[in-house]
Amino acid sequence: MQPLGKTDPAEIEVHIPDRAMTIQWGDGHRSVFSFDLLRKECPCAVCREAHHAATADPFKVVTSAVRPGEVTVAGAEQVGLYAVRFDWSDGHNTGIYSYEYLRALCPCGMCQ
Question: How does pLDDT run across 16-72, given as a tens digit for each residue?
């Protein structure tokens, strides 16, 4: 068996009361993602397009914006051996968060 690497999760915990997901990576690093960050950085095509439109035109009004604390995780599931997908309380569920994407998104001081 090959040892776990930088983008291989050794353990994932979705803790709804704390509104956070924690990943212990194969290289020993630990990432804690708030639900607000995960929902804001949803990698699906619709959310990426909305985010791009909002940053490309500072006068565009985006009506699908989610306020901090407004949305929570209703469920989560592993996608193959490469990603996780969330069911959000606002009905959104098309974002597939690859482990590579999540590691790059790590909000800790060392990674930023």
Answer: 999 999 999 999 999 999 999 999 999 999 988 876 666 666 555 554 567 889 999
Q: How many residues does the chain have?
A: 112
In-domain check, residue 110: no
Strands, sheet with 73-79, edge to edge from the N-terminal-most edge strand = 73-79, 83-88, 96-98
pTM: 0.86
Residue type, 45: A
Opening angle at CA 106, ends 13 and 25, nearest 5: 50
Identity of the amino acid at 54: A
**Residue 112 belongs to some domain of the structure:** no
| CA angle centred on 79, ends 92 and 24, rounded to 5° | 100
